[in-house]
Amino acid sequence: MAGAKIVASKMTDAIEQHIPALRRYAFALVRDHDAADDLVQDCLERALSRWYLRRSDGDLRAWLFAIMRNHYIDGYRGQKRRGPHVALDEAHEVGAPAGQDRGLEAREALAALDQLPEEQKSLLLLIGVEDLSYEEAARALGVPVGTVMSRLSRARQKLRAMLETGPTTYLRRIK
Q1: Could you tell me the residue ranges of all domains in the chain?
Q2: 171 with 96: CB under 8 angstroms?
Q3: Which of 85, 99, 151, 157 has the most crowded Cβ, counting Cβ within 10 A?
Q4: pLDDT tens string 124-159
C-alpha cells in the first residue's frame, strides 16, 4: 500500500509542474476558461490512467501536449463546429469602444489563427505560445523535425498573409 502511494506521489509531482503550460495551451485551443479547464482535466485523467504506456525515456511535457492535442481533435473540434451554447439572456451585441484598436487587432489575429489548418495551428501554439523546441514539438505531434520546420514556415506565411490583407467583408446587393 505504501509503495502505491509513493508511485502516485511521483506521478503527481511529475505532472503538476506542467499544469500551467497545459492550461495556457488549452485556452489557446478553445478560448474559453471553463472549456480549457475541462480539457486540462480530461488530459490529466488520460495521462494518469495511461501512465504505464508512457516511455520512461520520453519527454513528459511532449507526451502531455500530445494527449491534449489528440483529445482536443477528438472532441472539442466537433463542439466548435456546432458552435457555443449561449443562454438567450446572455446573448447581446457588444460594440468596441473607440481606442480599442489593440483589442481588435488581437481579435483579428485569433480569428486568422482559427482559419489555419489544425496541424499548423497546433504547431504555432506549441512553439510560439508554449515555447517548445522544434524537437519537443515534433515528439508531441509525432512527426519528424523537418516536417515541423516546413509546417511552421507555411503557417507563419499564411498567418502573415491573412493579417496583411485584413478581414474580408462580404457585401451583397439588395434589389
Answers
A1: 1-83, 102-167
A2: no
A3: 151
A4: 888 888 888 999 889 888 899 999 999 999 999 998
